[in-house]
Amino acid sequence: MKHFTLILAGAMVLALAAPAFAQRAHPSPGGPPSSPGGRPSGDGPGSNSNSNSGVGGTHDVTATHSDMSHASPSDVLSHNTAVAGKIQILTGQDAQAACAGFKNLGQCVAAAHVAKNLDIPGGFDALKAKVTGSGGVSLGKAIEQLSPQANAKAEAKKANKQASDDLKESSS
Prior knowledge:
59% of the residues lie in helices and 0% in strands. The chain is built from nine helices and no strands. It has helices at 2-22, 65-70, 73-79, 81-91, 95-99, 105-118, 123-132, 139-146, 152-171. It starts with a helix and ends with a helix. 30% of the residues are buried.
């Protein structure tokens, strides 16, 4: 009788746990699309392996803003006119040109917000040169150098939040 109770209890646990396992995400068949050279696209040092483009290079609207903020700026801007327009308003420049040299789009948008928020002497171009030029520094260090009276840490945090909100807004 004891043996039967244990078997019955085990069967109940498995039966009740099955729906939870069925809801787990499953990898798509075939794996990620390959780039020239046979390596999966986006699989490189410091890159995000979640590609923003699906089969045939079309925009994947399910991509999260964090995917977008870590993709190369030109990749995202070519598909996302809302972010491109926002950057153009903030910088007064074509978005592709404004973001050239930045590691990711989030960094570019944050720098654009800092330049606008603090009315940085030399504008966005001066800030961009500090962040992306040879011996580039962090956004906070660039703020300290270009606008010493500002609270660099608070301003960098504020700009990163604004950039995150912009990217979130444009991905919905």
